[in-house]
Amino acid sequence: MASSTVQPGNRVSGGGNHATNNTYSTLLQAGRDINLHEQEPLPTAPVPSSEIRAVRQAWVAEDSEGKEISTAPTVLAMLSQDERVVVIAGPPGTGKTAAGLRALSELRPALPGAVGSKLLLRLEHMLPDWESVEKDKFLLPAGHGRGYLLDVSGESSHWAKPDVTARKFLGHAETLRRKGSYLVVISGERGWPENDPVLGRNVVRAVSAPPGDRIARRHIERLYPQVARRGWLREGIREAGERDAGESGNGQDGREALADLLRADMQPGDAATLALELSRISDSGGTVKDARDLVLRWRERVSTVFRETQESADDRALLLAAIMLEGLSPAEVLKGARLLLKDQQTRGIRDILTGRDLVTRLEAVQAKSEGQRVTFSHLPGYPAAVLRHFWRQLSDVQPDLILWVKHLTASKGLGAARVPEIADLLAQLAVEESDLRPLDVAQSWATAGGSGQDGASRLLARVARDPALGQEARSRLRYWAGHDSLANATVAAVVCQGPFSKEYPRQTLTCLRWVLGRAEHDTAVSRAEEALRAMGADTQLLPRVWDTVTGWLTEYVQPDDRNHLAARRAFLALLHPCADHPVATLLLANAREHADTADELVRGWSAALSVPGLEVQCEKVLAAWANAVADGALDADAVSRCSTRSSVNTG
Predict the structure, then answer these.
(1) In this predicted model, what pLDDT tens digit does every residue of 244-283 receive, in sequence order?
(2) What residues contact 329, with CB distance under 8 A and at least 6 apart?
(3) What pTM does this model have?
(4) Which DSSP helix (H) or strand (E) runs through 612?
(5) Using an 8 Å Cβ cutoff, are 261 and 213 in contact?
(6) Which DSSP helix (H) or strand (E) runs through 85?
(7) Which residues contact 313 (CB under 8 A, 6 or more apart)?
(8) Are 316 and 389 in contact (CB under 8 A)?
(9) pLDDT tens, position by position, 435-481
């Protein structure tokens, strides 16, 4: 895409009467620089600086026996020898992603034509935006000076044709070489054809990882020194003056407070996350007991609470309500608990006066009441641990729990304002339990509108990004998109309006096509049209969107195929003028400069006008075009030429 200097508010020339200083002018000029006919590669996301800092500053290179772990050095050596694609294969928990990132961050290739100059690679995660890695045609990214990391460990064992897939990735090497870039593919224990003399040549097998306790210690020492200063991990005997009231009586005789809990068998990712969570406790002034609880993932504290509330459904319901309604008042939390128990009975005054007060009950389940707000801020991670315990140990409660969450988060429910936080809790539960059932609340959220739609999008998008569960979540989303159920189709369309569309645009467009092919123009179709316009308004996504939609018009020519209707609805959705999503403005501006875009617009109009069931929709879009011309939002000449040619083509 070429760059240009855009003058906001300038009138765009081209004949006819145009309003000056309109909000479309900047977008109109910018639209001329969009190359609508260049195939877009798979999306990427920058590797967060925190990840790079961790592998650079807190790296542990030895296993539990003190032997060097060769994964990262071997990958680095292969990359340094001009291997542009290297595969790291192995079971979970062997630090494959960290090793790949470490190697790419250490690599310093020479700048072409510059003697002695070294290049610092820009590191990016490549996102697997495909439905079938073997069948789909997609372009692998190859920016200049990039270090790409592609994690397919969650799906490699399910590849039907691993040799075909391997050739796709390895065949990208020459393109990367021309751009001075590299790719590290993270594979599962099985899937990559390692035994093939050609396809297995670039494979590095990860066998072991550093001990989890050493990873946690190193992260704390190098990245979170404030934790080390609290003395939680200090070796030897503490001086008497160091022991404060919060850290006494831990039964350790003054020795390392967490030494018996930091386990070597912790997976690398879990150890790094634990160090981060410990830093948050340290910042909030937590005690050794809090730190020990966190290392144990709150198992002991949760077990104690469940043991003490074994005979009290009221207290357990109060705990669940406090988790879901954190930040609300104790009275509102109590109301939420009664909703879970379906307890509509009015208590007698005698029971009220002789019962435990509400704050005491909340404290018994580890919640705090601060200024009429119930909170667990003093126990980071505790709510997720409790929810996980309910889900795993009391599995019969799952259907009722999901139904209750739907009621809580209805448009006028107690938890309506808590939808984003509840979505995060459910996403974490789904990932940690490898269970997609928590996603069922997304259907009611999507149909409710407002914050519910944002919650549905947030929930599905977060789970879809998970390396292990993401493929299954994305498959379910595509299934929902093509389902007859209005709720299922709506949730798919709503998710496509959120961050999912930027991270997985190819799969987003597939979902939208399925929804747009529904027989009736219902709310799911309307949501899909909105999502498509929003994607098109993003100038980074517009080339992919336009190429895909015009491809549908030529690919699906049988009127009885639902994709035939979907393609023509998609065209009309993009061409409907909208101030928030001015795709029509961008496309018409591009058509003035590029004849092929103009031809595609004409073909699209001809295709849409030929469908009897779309007559009303075509009339609405044409009327909107006329109004947009009158307002100066669309170029009159471009609209006139396009409309005339379309009318001629359709007779």
Answers:
(1) 434 434 444 444 677 777 888 888 988 998 888 888 877 6
(2) 372, 373, 374
(3) 0.81
(4) none
(5) no
(6) strand 85-89
(7) 341
(8) no
(9) 999 999 998 898 887 788 889 989 999 999 888 889 899 999 999 99
